[in-house]
Design a protein that fits this description.
By secondary structure, the chain is an alpha/beta fold. It folds into two domains: 3-117, 3-Layer(aba) Sandwich (Rossmann fold); 122-215, Alpha-Beta Plaits (2-Layer Sandwich), CATH 3.30.70. 36% of the residues lie in helices and 28% in strands. It contains nine helices and eleven strands. A six-stranded parallel beta sheet has the order 3-2-1-4-5-6, sandwiched between helices. A five-stranded antiparallel beta sheet has the order 7-8-11-9-10. Strand 2, helix 2 and strand 3 form a beta-alpha-beta unit. The protein starts with a strand and ends with a helix.
Length: 217
């Protein structure tokens, strides 16, 4: 069981805290707003009303002993920057910070955030990919130009084996897993003789330009 702290209990922070707690982790929730603390206290291990943009407050709370701290301070850019800076100075192992903009993200990375997330941008990209490619069920960007996508198999794939489709040579993509819906099962690194069914979901990795060719079939 890992120890998490969530600083900032807007919609994003609140849902992260509750979900981590539901999954069996120890969760410390922190916010300067008493009403937000009152709303979350029954769904986390401990809830504290506190200004996180104060190094001594964080130190007194023992934040340095937490495995992962998620900073989600909404529109409070200055507070999020100071909080991340102090967490870094207190040598917190892993700090995940929510950014409000590209510039904010750069600052957070520069002052010690282990990972910076940009939920609005990520969701916008996912939505755009889903709308432009109806077969894409899920989208995970990797390094520049590459991604992993979950897709419903094009009609011409159904009834054929992966060997017959030869996707790596024909399209430059690789099937890394298949989710079978009937019966429910996940096949990791499927063999060449796996026959594609219309109820299967293909999880494919490759360059986005090559994945786009698959989606256009």
């Amino acid at each position: 069981m890992a120890k998490f702290a969530v600083i900032g209990l807007g919609s994003f922070g609140l849902n992260v805290a509750k979900t981590l707690y539901e999954e069996g982790h120890e969760v410390l929730a922190i916010d300067i707003d008493k009403d937000k603390i009152e709303a979350v206290k029954d769904y986390v291990t401990r809830a504290v009303t506190m200004d996180s943009a104060d190094k001594e407050n964080l130190k007194a709370l023992g934040i340095q002993d937490i495995d992962v701290v998620i900073v989600s301070l909404g529109p409070q850019m200055e507070a999020s920057i100071l909080t991340v800076l102090y967490l870094h100075e207190l040598k917190v192992k892993r700090v995940i910070a929510k950014a409000l903009s590209e510039d904010h993200a750069k600052i957070l990375e520069a002052i010690g955030a282990t990972e910076v997330i940009y939920p609005e941008k990520d969701m916008a990209i996912k939505l755009a990919h889903r709308l432009s490619s109806p077969n894409v069920l899920e989208y995970l960007p990797l390094s520049s130009g590459f991604s992993i996508q979950e897709i419903a198999p094009p009609e011409k794939f159904i009834g054929k084996t992966l060997k017959e489709l030869d996707l790596r040579n024909k399209y430059g993509v690789q099937v890394i897993a298949i989710r079978e819906l009937v019966p429910e099962n996940t096949v990791l690194i499927p063999k060449a003789d796996f026959v594609i069914k219309d109820s299967d979901i293909l999880i494919i990795i490759g360059e986005e330009k090559n994945l786009a060719k698959i989606n256009s079939l």
